[in-house]
Write a structure and sequence with these properties.
The protein is of the alpha/beta class and 685 residues long. Strand 4 (410-413), helix 22 (420-425) and strand 5 form a beta-alpha-beta unit. The longest helix is centred in the middle third of the chain and has 21 residues, at 256-276.
């Protein structure tokens, strides 16, 4: 009788009638309540009806009767996870794996639970254990890829997602994960192909279209990206996708008129979304991008940045948490936290390593806030330079909690506007004093950023109106930058495919720094120097090269063939390229910073025309600090004249090189800048 009731109940459950199954299981248990398997079966029937708490009770009764039942422990773990009691679920899953080390589902579920808690390294180990037992499971490969991505192990994440797709080519989540990893690697065309495959498999999945939008945007295909974000929004109604569409700016604008058009469109889009009163539960997860390219438009960004920040404040008031709570310090030291997502081999790290290393430890305690990354020598150096290091998870709430827990006196953002994580973190009050440096030299519009620490030599008169933060003009470079050295055996021009008899005008900047207004100066320079070549560095995607080539050809078809694009290169090769050039050209409106310091270290003359905003005046500021103005232009024509004279008159060029090399030590290892930053922090606490 008991077995007959259980058999019929199982058929009901298999046929999708869990209510009928429940009734029969209860009848069977009324006959004999000591059968553990019946309690477990009743639990599954209850869970199928959404009665998870009751199901968990059944599983617990199962385990009282059969404490060594690995399946029962696994079922209990799944129920506890559904009840958001993930820590308890971990214990259940672990017990299942101890009882049955070959229990694949228990290892898989353990990995999922650990992922949910942000314990990604442990999750990776659990998934790998599951794969050792069942290597052909695409779900496990897919989830392993997610965990690896969260740990910044992007190449491994791409490989894991690729394995899932190889096993099951129509696995849409794995295709999306693979696309996301490829974006992180700068492989945007390949990423787009994966997102489009995922959209073909699941046409109603917004993640495929959102991912495609990101890949298209990185290729400079802004209108196609906007359309893809719009399609994703139509599928799910997430207002974050509307924000992504509104914030999508061209990487290579077509013209100055195009810049004005997209800025007006951005302003209108933000005003429309604000007026509608949209709500965002997690802007980092839902939007995950910034207005990065605004800074390259040669315009006052403060009104737009304040409008965007206002949109986020209204859409997600939780961003504005006040968590500042520094305790009394027995040792009297000021605790400073340095935050960036670029504490690895990156310009931001190079600009800040000396400051972090040389802050006076009698007066300051330094905490470095990093994010997951595979690691490199620069990361190691930064960690050694700090008193403490905290790795922030790539989750806004958890990252905010991690900073607040340190109870800092000062929070120092090395850059805001490049990383979505640090941008959204800056809305919260996590320390009594929150400062911003010029790693990304633009205002933020964020009310809880108190000070913008800038180089006085770079700021124009009246610059205070450009900032929502209080502008602090500091003496010196505001850096403690180690002077780079030319390789012992620098490469010749031929190593870069460049002729020895040409005059090389090198502009080794990111292509988005090349403002349309700069085009006419470059074209005029080549027209006046038949032996001249302008050397540029390729973008992260070759389509960006094509967009800029077309724009330059429109400005001067007769000289278009004399623009040379070289691939991105390591620092020793970059220094060799600069050393073998005749002149370095500073882009109009957005000046070189790190690259100018590297070129000045070699004595290379840099032609510059200071712009209206600090971000167009870095090189000019360095010249001011050195007391030099030989290469500082006053307009387009003067810029071209200086460049031509330097390239065509070896004696003048040699004179400028000697003067730069004589004065350039003032720019490096600037301890006085460190002291000035220290004093400003202590003064304004």
């Amino acid at each position: 009788m008991l077995e007959q009731l259980a058999a019929v109940a199982r058929r009901h459950q298999t046929d999708g009638r869990p209510g009928e199954a429940e009734a029969l299981y209860r009848q069977a248990l009324a006959l004999d309540g000591s059968v553990a398997s019946l309690h477990r079966a009743l639990g599954t029937a209850l869970e199928d009806q959404g009665r998870v708490e009751e199901a968990a009770g059944c599983y617990r009764r199962t385990l009282v009767l059969a404490p060594d039942d690995a399946d029962g422990w696994c079922d209990l773990g799944m129920a506890l996870r559904r009840l958001a009691r993930t820590e308890e679920a971990l214990g259940a899953y672990r017990r299942a794996t101890v009882l049955e080390p070959g229990f694949v589902e228990a290892w898989f579920n353990l990995g999922n639970a650990l992922t949910g808690l942000g314990r990604f390294e442990e999750a990776i180990r659990a998934y790998r254990q599951a794969l050792a037992l069942r290597p052909g499971d695409p779900e496990t490969w897919c989830n392993l890829g997610n965990a690896l991505h969260e740990r910044g192990r992007i190449a491994e994440a791409a490989a894991a997602a690729g394995m899932a797709v190889a096993i099951r080519p129509d696995h849409a989540p794995a295709l999306v994960n693979l696309g996301n990893a490829l974006i992180e690697q700068g492989r945007f065309r390949e990423a787009l192909a994966q997102f489009r495959r995922a959209a073909h498999v699941r046409p109603a999945d917004p993640a495929s279209f959102a991912g495609a939008g990101m890949a298209l945007r990185q290729q400079g295909l802004t209108e196609e990206a906007r359309a893809s974000f719009r399609q994703a929004w139509k599928l799910c109604g997430d207002p974050g996708l509307e924000v992504k569409e509104a914030l999508a700016l061209p990487i290579i604008p077509e013209s100055e008129a195009h810049i004005r058009e997209v800025r007006e469109r951005l302003a209108d889009g933000v005003a429309r979304l604000t007026g509608r009163g949209i709500r965002l539960r997690d802007p980092l997860a839902q939007v995950g991008q910034t207005c990065f390219y605004l800074a390259y438009h040669a315009a006052d960004d403060r009104p737009l940045q304040e409008a965007v920040a206002g949109l986020y404040e209204a859409a997600c008031p939780d961003l504005l948490q006040d968590r500042a709570d520094p305790p009394a310090r027995p040792d009297g030291r000021t605790h400073v936290g340095f935050v960036s997502q670029y504490w690895h081999q990156h310009t931001i790290a190079k600009l800040n390593l000396g400051l972090i290393r040389n802050l006076d430890r009698e007066r300051f305690h330094v905490t470095l806030f990093t994010t997951p990354h595979a690691g490199d020598a620069m990361r190691d150096a930064l960690v050694r330079a700090a008193d403490a290091t905290v790795e922030l998870p790539l989750d806004l709430r958890a990252a905010r909690d991690a900073i607040a827990t340190r109870r800092l006196d000062v929070l120092y953002y090395a850059d805001i506007g490049m990383s979505a994580l640090t941008y959204f973190l800056a809305f919260a009050r996590l320390a009594p004093l929150q400062c911003l440096a010029w790693g990304h030299p633009d205002t933020t519009g964020i009310r809880n950023l108190d000070r913008f620490l800038s180089c006085a030599a770079m700021e124009p008169d009246g610059a205070e109106r450009h900032y929502s933060e209080r502008l602090i003009r500091l003496p010196g470079t505001t850096l403690h930058y180690a002077r780079p050295r030319l390789p012992a055996r620098p490469k010749p021009r031929s190593a870069f495919g460049l002729p020895d008899d040409a005059r090389l005008y090198v502009c080794p900047q990111s292509l988005f720094k090349i403002h349309p207004d700069f085009d006419r100066a470059l074209v005029e320079l080549l027209r006046r120097d038949p032996r001249g070549l302008v050397v540029l560095l390729s973008g992260r995607d070759r389509n960006l090269d094509g967009l800029l080539r077309r724009r330059l050809a429109a400005a001067g078809a007769d000289v278009a063939a004399r623009f040379r694009f070289l691939r991105q290169m390591p620092l020793p090769d970059f220094l060799s390229l600069v050393a073998c050039s005749d002149v370095m050209l500073d882009p109009l409106h957005y000046s070189g910073g790190n690259t100018s310091l590297e070129a000045f270290a070699l004595g290379t003359p840099i032609v510059t025309w200071p712009g209206a905003f600090m971000r167009g005046r870095h090189t000019h500021g360095f010249y001011r600090l050195m007391g030099l103005d030989d290469c500082v232009a006053r307009d387009h024509a003067h810029y071209v004249d200086i460049a031509l004279d330097l390239a065509s008159q070896p004696d003048r060029r040699a004179h400028v090189i000697r003067r730069v090399l004589d004065r350039v030590p003032l720019l490096f290892d600037d301890t006085q800048s460190v002291r000035a930053i220290e004093n400003e922090i202590l003064r304004t606490q």
